[in-house]
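Exam prep: given the inputs below (a chain plus PRP), describe the expected output before reading on.
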Amino acid sequence: MSEVYVMDHPLIQHKITHIRKTDVGTKEFREVVSEIAGLMCYEATRDLKLQDVKIKTPLCEMVGKELTGKKLAVVPILRAGLGMVDGILSLIPAAKVGHIGLYRDPETHEPVEYYCKLPADCSEREVFVVDPMLATGGSCSAAIQMLKEKGVKHIRFLCIIAAPEGVKRMEEDHPDVPLYIGALDERLNEHAYILPGLGDAGDRIFGTK
Ligand code: PRP
Ligand code: URA
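Solution:
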């Protein structure tokens, strides 16, 4: 059974409600998506491992905590996932970034792969796959399959809005991958768009419609 975390932080809920509004333009949409990604990253990194470290403050010595364990990588699913990268890097600046290019065929809604470039040591890292939308789950499932085929074992998925259909698909295809979801919406419409959703995330981030 997948671990599924639906964010309950008031700031995240407030900001997601804001970007759903039709009259929020590209600049503001992009900025707030980045802020939401940062806040979600904060929630999704709660269980990262720490180790003791001896340090000197200006006054005395002490034992503090620092991150240990696997290094991190962020992998956005192009295009819309790019909008979440900076927000995450603002908290984890040392993370490496890979890219997976997938688009949804407008007729079949099946993902079509067009790009994959990952850090050379990706299989050694804890990988955060990011995409604002989990609709049918086809794109996310395919991206995670691509990572697994390259030997990546530790994967988390962060999305801003998910449909129950996408969550179900992920639970079936990749039950080992924890899902961090900003808001869990009602359902998909006949074009496999999320309702109530926020429309086409890629078009809203890049101003292409
Ligand atoms: C959107 C979104 C996801 C995918 C979700 O991308 O960013 O990648 O659709 O749908 P699914 O769960 O049914 O696969 P899109 O294909 O529109 O490409 P884009 O990011 O380039 O706009
Ligand atoms: N992709 C989007 O950008 N929005 C949806 O609602 C579904 C897929």
